[in-house]
Amino acid sequence: MYRLSRLKYVFPLGLFVSLFLDGALSHVWAPLFFRYPYSMMSELALLWLVLAYFFENGIDIPLIPFAIAAGVVADMYSSGILGLYMVLYPCIVALTQLLAKYFSGSFLSMIMIFFVDVVAFATINYWAYYMVGVTNTNFGDFLAFSLAPTLALNLVYFVVLYWPIQSLFNWATTENKV
């Protein structure tokens, strides 16, 4: 069914735009996002993948392959460690799928699941960088100066973009009725 819907164009385009905006917003708003000692990571691609799971309306989007592809692009563009995002994006999609089984599809449930996803994503990302020596920040500083601002930024993204993305997916998953 995915092949026959407008979603086959809308979803990859939205994923590409969200990946582009993650980098562009981080660059343009660098003085705001990375003001010492705080740092915020824009995770619009993660938001797109999570909301796509909830808004696919019975059309099974191949989220894991798209998450892997988005991870490869993100790795090549920004992270410096090839394979980190390539593994984390599909793991977060799988975590979303697992958590969604136990909660309703309400706005509050979705924002809570996204909250857990961002915490898991940022924490695993931190641990990976810590293990290879890219960062030497202690865990308490990570929680206060990186995770908390990242959560705040991405939850604002969620609240602001929830209804426009839902409308876009509703349009893309409904048939043309003339």
From TrEMBL:
One of its GO terms (biological process) is regulation of cell shape. InterPro entries: Cell_shape_determining_MreD (IPR007227). GO terms for cellular component: plasma membrane. Pfam families: MreD. It is found in: Cell membrane. It is a multi-pass membrane protein. Keywords: Cell membrane, Cell shape, Membrane, Transmembrane, Transmembrane helix. The chain crosses the membrane at residues 36-55, 107-130, 142-165. Its main location: membrane. Belongs to the MreD family. This is Rod shape-determining protein MreD. The lineage of its organism: Bacteria, Bacillati, Bacillota, Bacilli, Lactobacillales.
